[in-house]
Predict the 3D structure of the following.
Amino acid sequence: MIGVGEKFPMYSLTATVSRDIKSAFKTITDQDYKGKWKLYFFWPKDFTFVCPTEIAAFGKMNREFADRDTQILGGSTDSEFVHHAWRTHHEDLRDLPFPMLADVKRDLTSELGILDSKEGVAQRATFIVDPENIIRFVYVTDLSVGRSPQEVLRVLDALQTDELCPCNWQKGEETVVVA
């Protein structure tokens, strides 16, 4: 698996960005959102049970990430059409404020090392990537266990201080000062 300190891979994927069929799809690449932090999170499959709880939770926190100059990008190995159908028919996903990447060829998930060899789907993986496209945080859970968007935001806050942050540090608290 690709890790902290490594460059996020180059990619060009179709993303679902709205429910309006005339403007629902857009090509997104690693060159988009230059100068911003990026939060990439991947889920195993659309139309499942745990995945929409996470996706909706990240959607509800989009403003908090945006306030930190961070673009959220979600994705799976499902197609843009499956993403569109899911957004259209799942109440909690209808107004998502971030793109849903469609890695149907499994190129990005393979390059990241998060393609589950047993199931053939993306693992439940999260990457925080800095403005220079360097991975600063990786978080992967079992396919059956959802992650905490609040913890991802806490880590982003810590990374953006560029300071030493102790266990359970929260934004606004003192960082560690080495004399």
